[in-house]
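Chapter summary example: a protein plus BIS(adenosine)-5'-pentaphosphate.
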Amino acid sequence: MRILLLGPPGSGKGTQAKGLAEMLNIPHISTGDMLRQAIINQTALGQDAKRYMNQGVLLPDPLIIEMTQRRLSKQDCQSGWLLDGFPRTIVQAEALADAGIVIDYVIILEVPDVAVIHRLSQRRVHLASGRVYHLTYCPPREPGKDDETGEPLIHREDDYEPTIQKRLNVYHAQVTPLIEFYRSLSKQHGQPKTMSVNGDAPIEAVRDSVIQLIKQTG
Ligand code: AP5
């Protein structure tokens, strides 16, 4: 099972990916989490990544393609994966296809911009694990602390206006054509199965819709 989750920043890709990957027993591969880990580890990639991410713009395609292909070649990806945050451009999608990597499902979480802004301004994250909270919809048990480790939660540097708006602009410019690319592949070849889900609903309802769609089309 090879799944790609698409959707604007804050649409709930990470939130849904964790549960889905666990249920399907496949790794959740988030390029955003990998880059944030590189920043924590102060690698050369991390130093580059920080500059781009804090501005709300995409890293250059070659950097991301190399990082993701290396990850996908690991043993735990043999029987599938759930990609969250890659590909994000047509060039990245073509690099996957050129490497002979086939996607079974493209799931698009649809959430209006105004809801994204509300979600991201109240998101808090545990950087080391990628666990995500929301001050209203998904609060930690103890304010400001990760449920599992008790470590402090942070407000991501790219989760402040005007960077949120910049990320939304980048999404509409880059990812909308990518969705059309997959829809057209799906029409021509029947693969990947491409489907949209209303992401502007409670977390459990979105999860149920995604599972339902996979079952129906599987
Ligand atoms: P990345 O980390 O991938 O960020 P993103 O795509 O902008 O997505 P987010 O992590 O912001 O949101 P999400 O959809 O995962 O939502 P979440 O589940 O957290 O990328 C960051 C940066 O890295 C990019 O800007 C770029 O610079 C770089 N990058 C990464 N990949 C790249 C690539 N391929 N090419 C080039 N550059 C790349 O949920 C958000 C909040 O809402 C949370 O608080 C959550 O609790 C809450 N929530 C979730 N679902 C619901 C719901 N149904 N109802 C109410 N609240 C909800």
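Key point: The pocket of BIS(adenosine)-5'-pentaphosphate is lined by residues 7, 9-15, 31-32, 35, 52-53, 56-59, 64, 85-86, 88, 92, 119, 123, 132-134, 137-138, 167, 201-203, 206 (CB under 6 Å).
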